Amino acid sequence: MRYAAPTSISExxxxxxxxxxxxxxxxxxxxxxxxxxxxxxxxxxxxxxKRIDGIYDITSEDGGYRIGAAVSxxxxxxxAGVKALxxxxxxALELIGSTQVQGRxxxxxxxxxxxxxxxxxxxxIAAQAIARINGPDGERDCPVQDIPVAPxxxxxxxxxxVTSILLPARPANASDAYLRFIPRTEMDIAVxxxxxxxxxxxxxxxxxxxxxxGAVAATVLVVEExxxxxxxxxxxxxxxxxxxxxxSAAATPISDKRGTVEFRKDVVAVxxxxxxxxxHTRAGAPS
Amino acid sequence: MSNIHVTTTLNGDQVEYLCEPxxxxxxxxxxxxxxxxxxxxxxxGDCGACSVTMNGRLVCSCLVLAAEAEGQxxxxxxxxxxxxTLHPLQQKFLDHAALQCGICTPGFxxxxxxxLAKNPDPTETExxxxxxxxxxxCTGYDKIINAVMDAAAEMRGA
Lengths: 287, 158
Description:
Chain A is α+β, with helices and mostly antiparallel strands. Helices cover 33% and strands 25% of the residues of chain A.
């Protein structure tokens, strides 16, 4: 394996595109270093993107925030603006690993690693986040939900990598939340997870909702049926129950050592309902 | 395989080394620089025994490539005491018998120091969550938590 640390996006894409063998991106390294050590990844070229100018930046953009691909969970958690605008995304990213892992792990890495249990991904999808991708053909923007395609596989073409993620502007009276189930309190991987983002009109009626559930299918699932149960309501109990049931119906989990199909289908409804209530309260609904 | 030349700052001193691409910062510290304070427990970022700070951020040095340290500022357990004078955290770990076999201790100390730099007055719950990525198989944690709380109180008074 060779190691390269380009200082510009163009140099990075050139290196990636020119590599005849396998190449891998190194951002925070909390997935790739473990995979290298375990022999699960054997790239010929490892491209460290952290010396690229601006890659650690968090910048305001059209009322939202653009998060550089090397911004760690710890750095994002210290950013009052992002935390106020997208608390669910920040709390999801901050659930990953330990304090040590938080010092390095990135949102872009969590997305591209394409684990169905990735904590920040349901929250990012619910937030309608947009990944900026640079590659040999230039720059393109892509909804984050189109990036993971299967466990451990993403949709990026050869030479492409995510350089930043845009958390867009949101209206007043809108918020988001994320929860996961794990059998302990820290340092674990989601058995089931859910992210909800919603907006309320002046009368407190939900006029926009996005629901994403994790670890219950090969990729994080967007559950439009669940979102529809919330839109047009004040999130009364019947609406919330219907939303939970829609999540349960959409889930197609596997049974493994961390949870059974039955458990996951049951708990995804419980979590989604709790998350919707938290987002609702954060959006300014009377609690 | 071509070696990579790295210049970095370790505990305030400029250090140069040659490393292979896949070598971790932990490997280089222990095997090339004779700095064996940081321990390899799991090698996969789960145990925290290899904790160091890089530019003030707490990280596992087993999850950092040695090549990534180029131009960075790394602080390790070796930089914690001031000559013969122990850091308050080190002294409190002794006072509270917060160690038995000692493998996890350097990681706990570096992690606790990073916490107190950010939050000089943490609650016990905050200490426990901050240190959740540092595993100790001997003490049962209470002595460690007590030592950190006590050191924090002393450092606030100092």
